[in-house]
Amino acid sequence: MQEKNLLPFDGEVYYYPAVFNGKESKYFFNELTTNIHWKQEPVKLFGKEIMQPRLTAWYGNSDKSYTYSGITMMPGTWTAALLDIKARAEELSGALFTSVLMNLYRSGNDYMGWHRDNEKMLGPAPTIASVSFGAPRIFQLRNYANKNNKIPVLLEPGSILFMCGPTQKFWEHRLPKAPKLTAPRINLTLRNIT
Q1: Which of 113, 118, 98 is nearest to 170 (CA)?
Q2: Does residue 108 contact residue 179 with C-beta atoms inside 8 Å?
Q3: Of 5, 72, 85, 107, which sits with the fewest C-beta atoms within 10 Å of its C-beta?
Q4: Phi, psi of 179 (to 5 degrees)
Q5: Cβ atoms of residues 35 and 79 within 8 Å
Q6: Which helix (DSSP H) or strand (DSSP E) does residue 34 occupy?
Q7: What's the fold here for domain 12-39+53-191?
Q8: CA-CA distance, 160 to 32, in Å (whole number)?
Q9: What is the predicted pLDDT for the residue at 70?
């Protein structure tokens, strides 16, 4: 990876705009909207069960389930479109990905709160590729220990953001609400389940 590291310390985050051109981005957005089995599931947060404020899907190698926030997801089978996206992310990063967690944000009212992707099954220093299609959205990172050093990144359609090294140990991230936004966005987070 040759882009500049967006983090000042304790981690590596690289942003690549326009990995997929405009035509490719529209094609993949339409493919994923139509051919992915999206669902909205309850999660446990602070002892309460709430519906996730977005739609999700888990695809990948057949032996790679994923558990987070009280949910265990069994993988759907890789589609041709997902394999194309995976290949592009692997070529750019040099990493291998076995699975993808997808989020469909129906409008700016759908969001993801502060969290770290630090489940044991991801390993101690995972490389996670975050691919965006649809409406641009602001993504934020902040230092986990002191909640300072907030770093905003505008994730544009066709872009890939890579989080690598100790990032998940020392930094958390979120996709905040954007109340004025009515257009949808699809995000794919490719990861390697060990």
Answers
A1: 118
A2: yes
A3: 72
A4: -55, -25
A5: yes
A6: helix 22-35
A7: Jelly Rolls (2.60.120)
A8: 16
A9: 67
